[in-house]
Amino acid sequence: MTDIELVKEAFEARKNSYSPYSEFKVGAALLTKDGKVYRGCNIENSSYGATNCAERTAIFKAVSEGERHFTAIAIVGFKDGVTPGLEEYAYPCGVCRQVMREFVNPKEFRIIVASGEDHFKSFTLEELLPCSFEPENLL
Ligand code: THU
Fold first, then answer.
1. N or C: which end of the chain has fewer CB within 10 A?
2. How far does Cα 50 stand from its chain's mean position?
3. 62 C-alpha vs ligand 1 centroid, how far in Å?
4. Mean pLDDT over each residue of the chain, to the nearest integer
5. What is residue 60's predicted lDDT score, i.e. its pLDDT?
6. Angstrom distance (rounded) from CA 131 to CA 59
7. Residue 18 in this model has a pLDDT that exceeds 90
8. Ligand 1 and 62: CB distance under 6 A
9. Among the residues of 1-139, which ranges form H helices?
Protein backbone atom coordinates (compact mmCIF):
# COMPACT_ATOMS: atom_id res chain seq x y z
CA MET A 1 0.00 0.00 0.00
CA THR A 2 1.43 3.37 -1.01
CA ASP A 3 1.14 6.55 1.05
CA ILE A 4 -1.27 7.98 -1.53
CA GLU A 5 -3.52 4.94 -1.18
CA LEU A 6 -3.44 5.18 2.62
CA VAL A 7 -4.33 8.89 2.45
CA LYS A 8 -7.31 8.01 0.22
CA GLU A 9 -8.42 5.53 2.89
CA ALA A 10 -8.27 8.33 5.48
CA PHE A 11 -10.46 10.52 3.26
CA GLU A 12 -12.96 7.65 3.00
CA ALA A 13 -12.87 7.19 6.79
CA ARG A 14 -13.58 10.89 7.29
CA LYS A 15 -16.95 10.49 5.55
CA ASN A 16 -18.26 8.58 8.59
CA SER A 17 -17.19 11.24 11.10
CA TYR A 18 -19.81 11.87 13.78
CA SER A 19 -19.03 15.46 14.75
CA PRO A 20 -22.23 17.48 15.19
CA TYR A 21 -20.63 19.75 17.83
CA SER A 22 -17.32 20.83 16.30
CA GLU A 23 -18.22 19.95 12.70
CA PHE A 24 -14.52 19.16 12.37
CA LYS A 25 -14.45 15.86 10.49
CA VAL A 26 -11.41 13.66 10.94
CA GLY A 27 -10.53 10.40 9.22
CA ALA A 28 -7.64 8.06 9.91
CA ALA A 29 -6.33 4.95 8.18
CA LEU A 30 -4.01 2.65 10.08
CA LEU A 31 -1.79 0.24 8.15
CA THR A 32 -0.75 -3.06 9.72
CA LYS A 33 2.59 -4.74 8.98
CA ASP A 34 0.82 -7.32 6.85
CA GLY A 35 -0.91 -4.71 4.73
CA LYS A 36 -4.37 -4.51 6.28
CA VAL A 37 -6.04 -1.12 6.73
CA TYR A 38 -8.24 -0.14 9.68
CA ARG A 39 -10.25 3.04 9.22
CA GLY A 40 -11.37 5.34 12.02
CA CYS A 41 -13.31 8.58 12.36
CA ASN A 42 -13.86 10.98 15.24
CA ILE A 43 -16.97 10.20 17.27
CA GLU A 44 -18.21 13.12 19.35
CA ASN A 45 -20.49 13.07 22.35
CA SER A 46 -22.82 15.61 23.92
CA SER A 47 -20.75 15.32 27.10
CA TYR A 48 -17.76 16.48 24.98
CA GLY A 49 -15.32 14.58 27.21
CA ALA A 50 -16.46 11.22 25.86
CA THR A 51 -15.43 12.18 22.33
CA ASN A 52 -13.04 9.77 20.62
CA CYS A 53 -10.51 10.90 18.04
CA ALA A 54 -10.28 9.30 14.61
CA GLU A 55 -6.80 7.95 15.27
CA ARG A 56 -7.79 6.17 18.47
CA THR A 57 -10.91 4.79 16.83
CA ALA A 58 -8.72 3.17 14.16
CA ILE A 59 -6.14 1.92 16.68
CA PHE A 60 -8.72 0.51 19.08
CA LYS A 61 -10.60 -1.18 16.25
CA ALA A 62 -7.38 -2.85 15.10
CA VAL A 63 -6.12 -3.82 18.55
CA SER A 64 -9.50 -5.24 19.50
CA GLU A 65 -9.29 -7.45 16.40
CA GLY A 66 -5.96 -8.83 17.60
CA GLU A 67 -3.62 -6.64 15.55
CA ARG A 68 -0.42 -5.54 17.27
CA HIS A 69 2.01 -4.51 14.52
CA PHE A 70 1.59 -1.26 12.63
CA THR A 71 3.67 0.65 10.12
CA ALA A 72 1.83 3.93 9.44
CA ILE A 73 -1.29 6.00 9.98
CA ALA A 74 -2.73 8.61 7.61
CA ILE A 75 -4.82 11.45 9.02
CA VAL A 76 -7.03 14.08 7.45
CA GLY A 77 -9.20 16.63 9.22
CA PHE A 78 -11.18 19.67 8.14
CA LYS A 79 -14.70 21.11 8.24
CA ASP A 80 -16.95 20.54 5.25
CA GLY A 81 -16.87 23.58 3.01
CA VAL A 82 -13.55 24.77 4.42
CA THR A 83 -10.92 23.49 2.04
CA PRO A 84 -7.64 23.31 3.95
CA GLY A 85 -4.70 25.29 2.64
CA LEU A 86 -1.94 23.10 1.27
CA GLU A 87 0.11 23.56 4.43
CA GLU A 88 -2.82 23.20 6.86
CA TYR A 89 -2.63 19.78 8.40
CA ALA A 90 -4.54 18.14 11.25
CA TYR A 91 -1.87 16.67 13.48
CA PRO A 92 -2.75 13.95 15.99
CA CYS A 93 -3.48 15.15 19.52
CA GLY A 94 -1.17 14.29 22.38
CA VAL A 95 -3.38 11.52 23.71
CA CYS A 96 -3.44 9.79 20.32
CA ARG A 97 0.34 10.10 19.99
CA GLN A 98 0.71 8.41 23.39
CA VAL A 99 -1.69 5.62 22.39
CA MET A 100 0.35 5.05 19.22
CA ARG A 101 3.51 4.84 21.37
CA GLU A 102 2.07 1.87 23.18
CA PHE A 103 2.17 -0.33 20.10
CA VAL A 104 4.90 0.89 17.76
CA ASN A 105 8.58 1.57 17.40
CA PRO A 106 8.67 5.38 17.37
CA LYS A 107 11.71 5.47 15.10
CA GLU A 108 9.90 3.47 12.41
CA PHE A 109 6.18 4.17 12.68
CA ARG A 110 5.12 6.94 10.30
CA ILE A 111 2.39 9.52 10.75
CA ILE A 112 1.15 10.89 7.44
CA VAL A 113 -0.84 14.12 7.66
CA ALA A 114 -2.77 15.14 4.57
CA SER A 115 -4.34 18.39 3.44
CA GLY A 116 -5.43 16.92 0.11
CA GLU A 117 -5.61 13.50 -1.53
CA ASP A 118 -2.28 14.15 -3.21
CA HIS A 119 -0.78 16.56 -0.70
CA PHE A 120 0.64 15.12 2.49
CA LYS A 121 3.77 14.83 4.57
CA SER A 122 5.21 12.18 6.78
CA PHE A 123 6.85 12.17 10.21
CA THR A 124 8.09 9.43 12.48
CA LEU A 125 6.28 9.11 15.80
CA GLU A 126 9.58 10.00 17.46
CA GLU A 127 9.56 13.35 15.69
CA LEU A 128 6.05 14.15 16.95
CA LEU A 129 6.44 12.60 20.41
CA PRO A 130 10.06 12.95 21.56
CA CYS A 131 11.18 11.73 24.99
CA SER A 132 7.99 9.75 25.43
CA PHE A 133 6.81 7.76 28.39
CA GLU A 134 6.91 4.19 27.13
CA PRO A 135 5.90 0.68 28.12
CA GLU A 136 9.56 -0.14 28.88
CA ASN A 137 9.47 2.44 31.70
CA LEU A 138 7.33 0.05 33.69
CA LEU A 139 9.68 -2.94 33.40
N1 THU B 1 -9.87 15.18 16.66
C2 THU B 1 -9.44 14.00 16.12
O3 THU B 1 -10.25 13.19 15.68
N4 THU B 1 -8.13 13.75 16.11
C5 THU B 1 -7.15 14.57 16.61
O6 THU B 1 -6.01 14.18 16.72
C7 THU B 1 -7.52 15.93 17.03
C8 THU B 1 -8.98 16.18 17.22
C9 THU B 1 -11.30 15.46 16.70
C10 THU B 1 -11.89 15.45 18.08
C11 THU B 1 -13.11 16.34 17.90
O12 THU B 1 -14.18 15.54 17.43
C13 THU B 1 -12.71 17.30 16.80
O14 THU B 1 -11.56 16.75 16.17
C15 THU B 1 -12.39 18.70 17.29
O16 THU B 1 -11.43 18.64 18.29
1. C
2. 18
3. 19
4. 97
5. 98
6. 22
7. yes
8. no
9. 3-14, 54-64, 94-103, 125-128
Name the residue at shortest CA distance from atom 13 of ligand 1: 24
pLDDT single digits (tens) 34-81: 999 999 999 999 999 999 999 999 999 999 999 999 999 999 999 999
Q: Is 26 in the pocket of ligand 1 (CB under 6 A)?
A: yes
- As beta bridge partners, residue 112 has 74, 122
Query: 33, exposed or middle or buried, with CB in 10 Å at 0-12, 13-18, 19+?
Result: exposed
Is any atom of ligand 1 closer than 6 Å to the C-beta of 53?
yes
Instruction: Read off the pTM.
Output: 0.97
Beta-strand ranges (E) seen in 4-95 are 24-32, 37-41, 70-79
Distance from the CA of 105 to the center of ligand 1, in angstroms? 24
Q: Which residues are catalytic?
A: 55
Query: In the predicted model, what is the mean pLDDT of residues 102-116?
Result: 98
Span from the CA of 60 to the centroid of ligand 1 (angstroms): 15
Helix 94-103 vs helix 54-64: angle between axes, to the nearest 10 degrees?
20
